Amino acid sequence: MNWIESLQLAIQYMEDHLLENMTIEQISAQAHISPFHFQRTFALLTDVTVGEYIRRRRLTLAANDLLLSDQKIIDLANKYGYDTPESFSKAFRRLHGISPSEARKNSSSVKAYNRLVIQVSLKGAEPMNYKIVEHPGITLVGIKKTFSHVEGEHLRGIGQMWQEAYTSGMEDRLFELNNGGIKGLLGVCVDQSEIQEKQMEYWIATAYEGKVPEGLASFTIPLCKWSVFEVKGPMPESMQSLWKQIISEWFPSNPYEHAGIPELEVYPGPGHPPQIWIPIK
User: Fold this and answer.
1) Are the C-beta atoms of 151 and 51 separated by less than 8 Å?
2) Which residues is 267 bridged to in the sheet?
3) Residue 85's closest CA among 76, 94, 95?
4) Percent of the chain clearing pLDDT 90 (strictly above)
5) How far, in Å, are 179, 267, 280 from residue 227 at the CA level?
6) Which residues are in the HTH araC/xylS-type domain (predicted)?
7) Which domains does the chain have, with CATH numbers?
8) Tens of pLDDT along 91-101?
């Protein structure tokens, strides 16, 4: 079963349980991947978080009930998981642009967010250039922070972390230390859910051989084969576009599986395009 089929099973589960209190663990279990990787993959493919997708679908169904039935607003609020009519009305207005009472009174048009159907892209005209490399264990040194990966909270924190690394001179320091098998700076997401629920660790690091320098931490990635893709075009849009293409086109079309260790975003330095390193088996 490929990633697209797995994600579709998880989407079907969400649709079947929209009126229930689902957990991300229950949803990701349908796709047979960790909550961290499920949320990350889902957001890359759909440009929306899991939580936002569920909210939009519930409020779409709520709008249908509002316009096609005489159910009270307080009953609809309870049906679709809101504690009070006020919180329901606020969420309804944020999505549809009008309040529930206005929609019912004027039979106003509302927005419909339909059930997702994820498919492999059939464009296929643009080639994906990649190479397969095998690396012995890679030791990284750098800085790390722990973030929640719920609702994309880590994305905001990671951007700020890179900005701080630049202004503090940490990026330059890591570039100077780089003496390992991969050139440049690395961005690495490490799932920490087994240690601390809904947490991930993010590293800004470099490949380094030697004693760990003062003030830095170290992290070792085991022997693995990697599929290496070059990012072409303006950042960060081209990086996100390539991630989506890898998941939706490359994996379903090739005989590889994800090796289950962290992926790498590699920034070799001026004059060299960034890269995405995917661990494969």
Assistant:
1) yes
2) 185
3) 76
4) 47
5) 22, 16, 7
6) 8-106
7) 3-106 (1.10.10.60), 130-280 (3.20.80.10)
8) 999 999 889 98
